[in-house]
Design brief:
single chain, about 180 residues, alpha+beta, 3 domains, four-stranded mixed beta sheet, 4 helices, 8 strands, about 25% helix
């Protein structure tokens, strides 16, 4: 990538800005230009619709989401790592100035049970999985038969057990991911 060949911070900043512009253009062409404001309402616990309120995306995040995303914990199922331990993935961040990604490794049956419980309780469940073992990038293919290797043996990451001196995990566990599992 060109960013690795950059000679100074200004060049890196310029390349990052161009990458963001390119990503924005692709998303806008495919999904439309993001709204500057929108109207939203919801059904309360008594099954009554609230009146519409108008928000900007930032207002909605701060007033409605209200940093509740920190209440979620990623759960993975990686059979080659000990279960029921917390791990941190080195150099893997969702946002540049945030800590590395971390997760608790659980058996697949635990993930399925938690997902079912959340869905039955009308709570969201996010799912993601590693699919690189099913893709042939140079040919633009994405299909299960593209390789013969097992998903459990091809998924690799640089992980370490998370130190117990760090922040205690949040009690809610409605977000999960299961790399290499089906």
């Amino acid at each position: 990538m060109r960013i690795r060949a950059a000679q100074n911070d200004a060049e890196i900043a310029s390349l990052r800005l161009q990458a963001l512009k390119d990503a924005y253009r692709i998303l806008a062409l495919n999904f439309g230009i993001p709204p500057t404001q929108f109207k939203w309402r919801y059904e309360d616990k008594d099954k009554k619709l609230t009146p519409f309120a108008t928000y900007t995306p930032q207002q909605f995040y701060h007033e409605v989401v209200n940093d509740a995303l920190d209440d979620y914990l990623a759960l993975y199922s990686i059979p080659t790592l000990p279960f029921y331990k917390r791990y941190e993935i080195d150099l893997d961040k969702a946002v540049e100035d945030r800590p590395n990604m971390n997760f608790v490794n659980c058996p697949l049956d635990t993930l399925k049970g938690l997902a079912k419980a959340c869905l039955l309780d009308n709570r969201p469940v996010w799912f993601g999985c590693a699919v690189e073992q099913e893709s042939v990038r140079d040919r633009g293919l994405m299909m299960p038969e593209s390789t013969t290797t097992s998903p459990c043996t091809t998924w690799t990451c640089s992980c370490r057990e998370r130190s117990s001196s760090r922040r205690t995990p949040a009690p809610r566990t409605t977000t999960w991911s299961s790399p290499g599992s089906t």
